[in-house]
Structures are given as structure tokens and as C-alpha cells.
Write a structure and sequence with these properties.
The protein has no helices and 22 strands. Strands 4, 5, 6, 8 and 9 form a five-stranded antiparallel β-sheet that branches. Strands 13, 14, 16, 17 and 18 form a five-stranded antiparallel β-sheet that branches. A four-stranded mixed β-sheet has the order 7-3-10-11, with no helix packed on it. The chain is globular, with a radius of gyration of 21 Å. The N terminus and C terminus are likely disordered.
Length: 264
């Protein structure tokens, strides 16, 4: 890792100029290792294309998820690593122009195969759309089947299956905007179009803590065994990790520094 650059000394005094900026809000991001050929993966975020990482996730095995604090509304550079490798497996970025990461916990990142039955990797930076009050967004993501899927859910204790959507091909996905009408326990299954069941999830619960948040049900596959994993945008039980009320616009000064760039 490169040595830290020498920081300039800030000279207090009158403003050189003033601008309206938004504070950088600490939001929540998730990182799921959905690549069957990557036994252990980690993710790092950077303020600049090069230089040291500002935050690094814990390493997670295939089918598992790590949570990390990320900066909302600003450009961030993202690298995913295979095990202890120092060269990134894949690189991506989210820009301030596109809104960057969101203050709502809907920043769901996944390391996935680039194509079916290939070792190449891609990093899916999924923001599931703004989540309205009293709702949650549920993504259906196929990273484990080479074909179209029909997705259905069952309410535990009620029985019967209700179709909730379809996805097209490998790496197909769709987002459902769902209204919260009370705590419920669900099972989701994915079936091939006019074919057999591919996988079904374990029971997972939706509670009032999930409103204002994103989540996804992710189909993954390794060595011919498929499974559905449920991933919340917030890793804290009983919380939705919504940071949107944490900051407001404020005025700040752009101060001269020493050494000044004009001194060079």
C-alpha cells in the first residue's frame, strides 16, 4: 500500500469562496459473493481511482453477504477481490452524477459470473429504486440458471403459491415494489418456464423494519446445486439502516491551504 501523502495545513481566515454542498452521509451497502468459482471474496471502496481503500468489507464465502458503510451521493470506485489477491478481480464505479450510493439501504452489490458456466466475473451494483414510505423493494435475481424463470411465493401458514414475476435468461432480474401490510413469513421458489422447480428459499420474514429498504432473492448455483438466498439491504435485525434524515444542505468555505497549489 502506498504511503499517505502529506496533508496540507489549513489556514483559518476569510472564505476564498463559498458553495452549497450536501454532507457525505454514511449509508449502508451490502456485498454478496454469488460467484461459484470464487471461494472467498471481499469488496473495497475508494474515493479516487487509485490510492488506498477508504473501507473494505469482511471476506465472505460463496452465497454469503457482508455489510459495510458507504458514502452516499458522491463518486465511489469499487473493487472486488478474490481471496487474498492484491489485484482486483473486477472494477466498477458509481458516480455522483448518477446519485452514487443511496442513503436508503438499497445498495445491493453482488459478485456474479459474467456469463453462464464461465469463470469471468462481473460486479452488479444494484440500486433498487427509491423506496416509498410504507413499502419495500424486492429484487428477483438469477445468477444460477441458464434460462427464463417464473418466481412464486408462499405465505407460511396460508399455503398455496402465488406468481410474483418472471426473469429472462441468465443474469435476468426484476424489481417488485411491495406494500407492507403486516409482518409475514415467506418462501420463494424459482421454476423454469414450463419446466421443473430450480430452487426454493428458506423461510424469511418481512416486518415493519423492512419498509424503506431494498432486498433481493438471489438464485445461485455451484456444482449443479442451486439455492435461493434472501439478502436484506440492511444487515441489522429490526432496522432498515435508513440514513436519509442524517443530513441537510449547508454552506461551507473553500479555504486556502499551505502549501498552496499556486506556490508550485
Amino acid at each position: 500500500m502506498a504511503a499517505d501523502a502529506t496533508l496540507p495545513t489549513i489556514l483559518l481566515g476569510l472564505c476564498a469562496s463559498s458553495v452549497m454542498i450536501k454532507p457525505c452521509i454514511a449509508a449502508t451497502c451490502s456485498f454478496t459473493n454469488a460467484h461459484p468459482d470464487v471461494a472467498v471474496a471481499s469488496l473495497a471502496l475508494y474515493d479516487e481511482p487509485t490510492g488506498p481503500a477508504t473501507v473494505t468489507s469482511t471476506a465472505v464465502g460463496f452465497g454469503h453477504t457482508a455489510y459495510l458503510t458507504c458514502k452516499s451521493g458522491v463518486t465511489q470506485y469499487v473493487r472486488a477481490f478474490n481471496g487474498s489477491d492484491t489485484v482486483a478481480l473486477v472494477f466498477a464505479q458509481t458516480t455522483a452524477a448518477s446519485g452514487g450510493f443511496k442513503c436508503q439501504a438499497r445498495n445491493l452489490m453482488s459478485l456474479e459470473p459474467l456469463a453462464w458456466n464461465q469463470t469471468g466475473a462481473t460486479l452488479d451494483l444494484t440500486s433498487l429504486g427509491e423506496v416509498a414510505e410504507g413499502t419495500y423493494n424486492l429484487g428477483l435475481v438469477n445468477s444460477g440458471y441458464d434460462g427464463d424463470l417464473v418466481w412464486s411465493e408462499q405465505v407460511v401458514g396460508v399455503g398455496g403459491w402465488t406468481e410474483i414475476g418472471t426473469t429472462t435468461g441468465f443474469n435476468g432480474a426484476r424489481v417488485l415494489v411491495r406494500s407492507f401490510s403486516g409482518d409475514v413469513s415467506l418462501i420463494v421458489k424459482a421454476e423454469a418456464i414450463n419446466g421443473p422447480e430450480v430452487a426454493r428459499s428458506s423461510v424469511f420474514s418481512i416486518t415493519s423494519a423492512d419498509t424503506g429498504m431494498g432486498a433481493h432473492v438471489h438464485l445461485i448455483e455451484a456444482s449443479g446445486v442451486s439455492s435461493l438466498v434472501f439478502v436484506r439491504g440492511c444487515g441489522t435485525a429490526g432496522d432498515n439502516c435508513n440514513a436519509c434524515e442524517a443530513g441537510e444542505d449547508f454552506w461551507t468555505c473553500l479555504l486556502y491551504t499551505s502549501p498552496s497549489p499556486r506556490d508550485s
